[in-house]
Design a protein that fits this description.
Blueprint: H1 2-23, E1 60-62, E2 68-70, H2 71-75, E3 80-85, H3 90-105, E4 111-116, H4 121-130, E5 137-139, H5 144-148, E6 156-160, E7 166-171, H6 176-186
Parallel strand pairs: 3-4, 4-5
Antiparallel strand pairs: 1-2, 3-6, 6-7
């Protein structure tokens, strides 16, 4: 009888473990690899960057889930908006929902990338989920990316053209309608 029960118990345990893991969804970290942009839309038309614009500082940083992100790979094909923020920044929080909506409107045409500094991982995740941030977020614990863009405190917004030309930076951040206007001047084919 023992010989018959042992395989049966093993099968039941395996089925139980499989059922349990199917019920427990694996939650991806907000701001991780699942938020990276898709292919560049075929109809994307951009105004060329001025020839006098300096090159944006290139960097590679880790997303919230540890996936490496290389900024130059993103701006090789399309403009990039960097939003420098921290979860404890009240101005950042007040503007984040509108920026998240704007990022969804420009999805794949313009890449939004958050750069979070001076943050705790759990507080950062709470912030990203509360404000529905659906774009990649680089964790800049040592603030090396912040320093390369001369960001001293959050918020700040930086616009980089396709090809890596640094178009403009806004210390103190920027509201979504003004950023939308700037993006409209750059992206000739409107957001889809």
């Amino acid at each position: 009888m023992r010989r018959l029960l042992a395989p049966l118990v093993a099968v039941l345990m395996l089925v139980g473990c499989t059922a349990r893991s199917a019920e427990e969804p694996a939650t991806a970290l907000a701001g991780g690899a699942s938020t990276l942009p898709g292919p560049v839309p075929a109809d994307l038309a951009l105004r060329p960057a001025p020839g006098t614009a300096p090159a944006a500082p290139a960097f590679t940083g880790g997303l919230t889930d540890g996936t490496p992100l290389t900024a130059a790979q993103l701006w090789a094909d399309r403009p990039v908006v960097f939003t420098f923020f921290s979860s404890w920044c009240t101005t950042c929080a007040a503007r984040q929902d509108a920026l998240s909506d704007l990022a969804r409107r420009y999805r794949d045409r313009v890449v939004f990338v958050g750069v979070a500094g001076v943050d705790q991982a759990d507080e950062l995740q709470d912030y990203l989920r509360a404000h529905r941030v659906e774009y990649p977020v680089v964790v800049d614990e040592q603030q090396t990316v912040w320093r390369s863009y001369a960001v001293r405190e959050p918020p700040a917004v930086v616009l980089v053209a396709k090809g890596g030309a640094l178009l403009r930076g806004w210390p103190g951040g920027l509201d979504a309608p003004t950023l939308d206007q700037r993006l409209g001047e750059l992206v000739l084919a409107g957001p889809g």
